[in-house]
Amino acid sequence: MRKNGETDADYVRRHNIVKRAKGRAADYPCEHCGGTALDWATIHGTDGLAVDDYMPLCRPCHRQYDPVGDRALGRPHTEESKRKIGQANLGHNVPQSTRDAVAASNQRRAGFRHTPEAKARMRAGALLREARKRGDANVVDVPR
Ligand SMILES: [Zn+2]
Description:
Elements: H1 8-22, E1 39-42, E2 54-57, H2 59-65, H3 69-72, H4 79-89, H5 96-109, H6 116-134
Antiparallel strand pairs: 1-2
Bound molecules: zinc ion.
Zinc ion is lined by residues 30, 32-33, 35, 57-58, 60-61.
């Protein structure tokens, strides 16, 4: 899925990450139907910056999963393609609870970055847990 404000070049660069790491999507079965995949689709709810944020999908499954798939390939939607997407999405009802959860997750993720202090705390905590696992008696707890 293309992110807001992302240019074609950005989109291609982002997808090249996964292509370099995993090869062509066509070498994998489609994650949804098991057919031959064609595209690497960005998994919804991920930021698409990690290789694992992608799954191989065949074109029909990609379209269904991700209606902007066509535009991602550099073609704008035509009236005809909009109509087809509307048809494909008919009867696909996402429960309100799922919509709420996705909206809440997007809200949390929007612009979220760990502060340097938070990162330092996480690192210190990890070191402390490792030391305790080793049974190191000289470990001093980190201030919280
Ligand atoms: Zn498929």
